[in-house]
Amino acid sequence: xxxxxxxxxxxxxxxxxxxxxxxxxxxxxxxxxxxxxxxxxxxxxxxxxxxxxxxxxxxxxxxxxxxxxxxxxxxxxxxxxxxxxxxxxxxxxxxxxxxxxxxxxxxxxxxxxxxxxxxxxxxxxxxxxxxxxxxxxxxxxxxxxxxxxxxxxxxxxxxxxxxxxxxxxxxxxxxxxxxxxxxxx
Amino acid sequence: xxxxxxxxxxxxxxxxxxxxxxxxxxxxxxxxxxxxxxxxxxxxxxxxxxxxxxxxxxxxxxxxxxxxxxxxxxxxxxxxxxxxxxxxxxxxxxxxxxxxxxxxxxxxxxxxxxxxxxxxxxxxxxxxxxxxxxxxxxxxx
Lengths: 185, 141
Fold this sequence. Notes:
The structure holds two protein chains of two kinds. Chain A is mainly alpha-helical. Helix content of chain A is 46%, strand content 0%. In chain A, helix 4 packs antiparallel against helix 5. Chain A is globular and about 40 Å long. About 21% of the residues of chain A have low confidence. Chain B is mainly α. Chain B contains six helices and four strands. In chain B, strands 1-2 form a two-stranded antiparallel ribbon. Chain B has a two-stranded antiparallel ribbon with strand order 3-4. In chain B, a hairpin with a 6-residue loop joins strand 1 and strand 2. In chain B, helix 2 crosses helix 6 and helix 3 crosses helix 6. The longest helix of chain B has 22 residues. Chain B is globular. In chain B, 23% of the residues are buried. At the A-B interface, helix 1 of A face helix 1, helix 2 and helix 5 of B.
């Protein structure tokens, strides 16, 4: 048997296997399936205000800083998650079960529940309002009053919404002034 | 014995041939081939055009409400092999599957991003023809 023929057989088997496995692979590798293992244990809040949910991360971090749920009050998350088809002008194309899981996670870990100083200040500053933008909260605005538009527009920052560009420990709930490093460009 | 040898040879051939086939940027995996075939049925065509996909990628359009110019390249830049940036400044890994290997490997993800981004740029969902052309262009890089 020539080498070519062996390769041809192998290739044929591979293609058939691919065709047979195809539809099943689609079902098994769907995004929901990948997250079931982790989200149950991660759903509850933690003392530093950094709860974790794999689905939230997967769906939201592609476009923006992974805002900690404690950065907005519960009713804000309720409102945002009820309008994911009009999310600041974008349709997030999330299916109902994803919306539901992410909403439960965000509401369960909102500013009222973080147990952090920044969480308490956000809750207090929002008062009875329902802010949709973290950057629209008065206390957040006051804390950033010295940051000029020129700084926010720097290439490595991009906008006021890109928390992690300067708050190096922001993803871990560290918003202390001492931990801030503002990129020069 | 001969049978066993053939089985072994076939397996070896799968490993040798199958691995590069699965990861090479120029070829789609079986899941994605199924998606392409649904696009072919939807568009009523036998093959897609990388050239039309490139045109779509670079086409610019003014958003009816926001009155700003939008394009795939707004976020992905005109060079698919380069990192892009979202409107709020988050880095996007290159869209080219030749650079970012996991691009265009998961049909569910691909469909979700078409829905999100076609609505953002075109204010409508993309057609089967547009989606097929787009993927064909990206896979040609």
